[in-house]
Fold this protein.
Amino acid sequence: MFKFIHAADLHLDSPLRGLERYEGAPVDAIRQATRKALQNLVALAIDEKVDFVLIAGDVYDGDWQDYNTGLFFVKEMKRLKDAGIHVVLIAGNHDAANKMTKTLDLPDNVKRMRTDKPETKPFEDIGVAVHGQGFRTAAVTDNLSQNYPKPVPGYFNIGLLHTSLTGSEGEKDHETYAPCSLKDLQAKGYDYWALGHLHKEQTRQLSDPMIAYSGTTQGRKIKSTETGAKGCLLVRVNDNHQIEAREFCAVDVFRWEVCNVDASDLESPEGVLDRFDVRLDKLVDAAENRPLSVRVEVCGASDAHSKLAADPDHWTNEIRSRALIRGSDQVWVEKVKFQTRPAADTEAFYSSDGAIGELVALVRDARGDEAQLRELSTVLDDLRSKIPAELLNSENLKLDDKWIAEVLQIVEPMLATLLMGSDAE
């Protein structure tokens, strides 16, 4: 029997984006989150006495600013060497051979696979063969898996690959690199495929062979593939080379979550706050004492809509206040998005032939019309030229068509509610 850890997408020293905006957030400590996640992974490997660790690409987040990033990784690999644990890794698009201007020798327990062609790393004492190839350039569009070698007879064969596997969850959130299909991987005759590149943990196939993404070890921003628990996979294989267990192990130190609040049956914003409390408590419990950044999305056709839309700033800060009270300084609200709509009777008024109905129709048409969105985007060209690049590229101020459509969605109920006045409440 043997055990191994499958990890990927460490992105060492990549920043957790936007935390500077949060009042009281421990920014300095959180900046070390990717490093602490690797330390947790190494501690897990040592505690579990695994035979080897696989890293399926993107150890780094691009070229190092200085050698400290590389020195930190060397130190952690030395901890594994001292415990008698081998490491096999490949380069992904973020640490492709042509992107890295600085390199350091790694301890001799670490095998870095070639980038010009696939190669095999055998572990003869336990009958394991790891096959892999790293990225030579940042944008690899060829199907690398097709050239992977045949399985070694009598061995447990593992394919190590950084790839966009067709049909995987989160595939559209990442650039398409080294694309392949399930059939491509099945055809190689391996026992396990350890994949990297997509940041969401998922098992695409349970057996013959098992095909899995471990996901990133530390979420870095509020994005669908970055939210929730992040970590690695601990795999146990018996003496008959059958996988007995695959366990996800969280190693992250800071967590991002989306808190969905359904306001459909609520009559007042106060009810929304109470429901937020319940949802937040569950997220805090699941985070297991980790600091937590939350995006709150309030949705549904609700009687509370008009009051929420009339003063979103007030209710946003009420939600932030509840988070401070219930989160014990461990929770920060990244953003609040009110996506409610009027209850059925008010919606009928919105759709009437009057001025309000015409206004709502105008905004809704613009939101769904690519030509009108492009026209609005052109109007903002002068503003773009005056905004610093780091702000313009932030999650909150992209000024692109998608951002404009989201703003229109927020503006629609605000304008209608203001025109309706107190009668709509």
Residues 343-425 form one domain.
